[in-house]
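Troubleshooting entry. Yesterday's outputs looked truncated, so today I'm pasting the complete records for two proteins to confirm everything comes through intact. If either block looks cut off, that's the bug. Protein one:
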Amino acid sequence: MNIVCLDMEGVLVPEIWIAFANKTGIPELKITTRDEPDYDKLMKYRIKILKEHNLGLKEIQEVIEQIDIMDGAKEFLDELRSITQVIILSDTFEQFATPLMKKLGWPTIFCNTLEVAENGEITGFKMRVDKSKYTTVKALQSIGYDTIASGDSFNDLGMIKASKAGFLFKSTDKIKADYPEIPAFEEYGELLEAIKKAL
């Protein structure tokens, strides 16, 4: 029995924080998990920048409402879900993901949650589990699933390496160079064929 685990941002939808950085003109918010492997450090940095600029959840959600999913993402996901089970494993937050899941046809997503004050200020975040993608893949394997995983960033490497098959998708040149043993694809058609072969 197989289950495919996909990253969300950079694979199915554009990076939320980059879109928000572009909208607000705050370049410091362009740093993502492609640049910073330590997610805890990255989120604390983001929250600090938001506080400095007096920006909260409402402003981010307004930008997310305007984000379009990547060209071909829904068709890819629909076809994949017609042949196997799929879970999106993301380090994003429930408060960010909902409008994007609607555009993708409501796939299953496991993600984290933000701590938000009454005035909308983001005060912290709660991770579902430590090393959430890797831990989830190992848990799925413990209940009898073979996992196939794909993502684009440092925080996807754990689940990719722990799976029976794993692929980089639209990743950076640095990550591809550092992990030449992981097949890397740029087009949904190529990724779909690779997953089909691994099933």
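Protein two, checking that the full record survives here as well:
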Amino acid sequence: MTEFSQPFDDRDGFIWHDGRLVPWRDANLHVLSHGLHYASCVFEGERVYNGKVFRLEDHNQRLINSAKIMGFEIPASMDDLARATEEVITSNNIKEGYVRPIAWRGAEQMGVSAQRTKIHLALACWDWPAYFSPEARAKGIRMLWSRWARPAPNTAPVHAKASGLYMICTIAKHEAEAQGCDDALMLDWRGHLAEGTGANLFLAINGELHTPIPDCFLNGITRQTVIGLAKARGIKVVERHIPPADLAKADEVFVTGSAAEVTPVGEIIGSVGHYRFTPATLCRLMWEDFDRLVGKSVAASAA
């Protein structure tokens, strides 16, 4: 896992904050902001390749949709978001990096009700190397079965990229890392395979790709991209509810996400079962096709 040695609140550069670029250290919010206390906050994670965000329009539309699910509106149009993204990338001179748009309810009202709060919007951008190390990508990451499950659709706004939904992801990832793993693997509330803490899941079974139906977690933009790449190669993609025992049928397993890109899984450990995999043909095809699509050097990324 990539480590960031410099604190995120003490950096040079600029953050787009409520309509203008401000010095990085001045982009603050009040301690009584509703978004901090009640998780009335939505965000995106966007990858920058060669100075441009991959599938920017899709990310911006998802941000707007997430806010609507949470009961508020992003104070910017699609065009505004595109311009702000370009400004923050250019001002920080980012070529290969990550953009974090975030919108939250302010401090005008404290309590569960928040109709009178102002909606704030910020975009930050920073350099971003590989999420997992080249060694982990080559042999596959190690995952721990999480004791936390993705919630049912009638218990949480599961189709919003909302900050509160990531509480259990942080807990699960910390528990995984404490046991020497790279990430955690979560089931859904029914006991089916779901996802990692920030990435969707694919299983290679008999030359096909099988992936869980995203009915209680995000249908990731990278997930959608990989499905399209697989179909373009004539690889059958099966979206279904997958019981954990089906991992025994899989020849390869990989995860996908804006941060993780396409990363093989080498081992899954824990109470639900112990499985080992060796990255092979389908893993390599998908990560090479994805790297070509976003303009990365395939030879360098596969090394």
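Both blocks look complete. Sanity check on protein two: The chain has two domains: 14-127, 134-302.
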